Request: fold
Amino acid sequence: MTKHDLTLISATDGSELPQEPFPARHLIDGQWCESADGAAFERRSPAHGVLVTRAAQAGAKETEAAIAAARRAFDDGRWSQISGKERAALLLRVAELIERDLEQIALMETLESGKPISQAKAEIEGAADLWRYAASLARTLHGDSHNSLGSEMLGVVLKEPIGVASIITPWNFPFLIVSQKLPFALAAGCTAVVKPSELTPATTVILGELLLEAGLPAGVVNIVLGFGQPVGALMSTHADVDMVSFTGSTAVGKAIVAAASTTLKRVSLELGGKNPQVVFADADVDSAVDAIVFGIYFNAGECCNSGSRIIVHKDVAEEVTERVVALSRKVPFGDPLHADTKVGAIVSAEHQKKIDGYVKSAAQAGASIRLGGGPLTVPGLQEQFYQPTVLSGVTGDMAIAREEVFGPVLSVLEFSTFDEAVALANDAAYGLSAGVWSENVHTCLEFTRRVQAGTVWTNTWMDGFAEMPFGGVKESGLGRELGRYGLEEYLEVKTVQMRIGRTRAPWVPNR
Ligand code: NAD
Reply:
């Protein structure tokens, strides 16, 4: 414990910090390349301040070239027309290569994002599982047949790959999120242009290397490094792109919908959340408190699924709050490279200021800061850490209760009746996920039915499976990832109606 009464993990010996930055280049039509004008950008580790990556910075020229390569690769059938068995074999090879290089990928993920190394390793492992699961979908993909349209007809519904997919990802789970999209697109037979966040480009580039090593034909996956403007914007408007799959902020998601509307592309969006966990008076408080602490500090709260609002029955609100505060002090945070760390650095100084702004304005509006409430310097590291923070007395009208803070900041609200709990839970523009804690199955089921969310956890938080669809309602998104639904996003439906024999009565009598 330190003077802050928190569990701090000081800087490690730094032996894993890179001597040279990772050189990240674009992958266009099977070739690694710099930008024509030599433009580049850099990424420093948010925890250590060392230069981690130097990346080529694309302009319109590289983006156009990547889209053209994906278009050609789709249209000539080098991937879209091979068998599901062949596609599955490649996806399985990629899963093995990810597992082979897990340590290296996890280290880059930690250095670029600031997340704890143990968590990065678990994410890479989870990503490998997604590639493996998508392989199973590639082999079992099928349409429907209709054999009951009458003796003269047979109807067939074909599932076809939609075409070229633009895949745009955020910085908070870079390798996991690209793996929630790309293997599903490839399983469907699509080709892709991928743009990772400008804050975390390296691991997507490493994935590109693995795809080539696994034998993916040139042009099937292209990677363009750079910013929303012009790269992401062009990927969302270009006439040769058939769909955009985006994970990121709701504001950019709305801009993408507008941009994609000019050519009526399909758009699939995984956006922000303001996810409530509702704790009823009969809840198992030990389990709820642990899950609340996990839900708010996992990935330093920089998580679409962050359980950033807890809505607690007034009879247990004080007990739950005190126990959450006590447990929060025990959460080890500090150097992301230390094996014991559970909370790492905040992704950027700018984001740290935004988090602090929400906390300060909530305090001014009357909320009580029960723990934390400001940035913190971890010995030997950059000043880019934010204290585990708990605010009680938060009301539904405060910005901190409605907007995505994206930091280790928990808001506690109280309720008296079931209806009030549901109303508070639904009182947000977002609808990504929600949780309910009660020992009464009827309470859990009733809440599950009435809450507006794409995922509901009962007596648990943030479990996820490749088989289970994930996505949001309201302003949290459009469409679903994972499971069979995740594959459907990349498929188009073609209806085929076949007449059996020459039995059709003529439309125009021609005697
Ligand atoms: P962001 O929206 O700022 O950026 C995401 C990506 O979009 C980046 O690659 C960025 O370069 C690109 N981009 C920016 N402007 C663009 C434009 N005009 N056109 C096309 N692309 C553009 O988001 P972020 O800060 O990287 O990530 C955090 C956000 O992501 C949070 O809101 C979080 O909730 C959300 N998120 C959602 C999920 C989910 O599954 N629902 C998962 C993770 C993160």
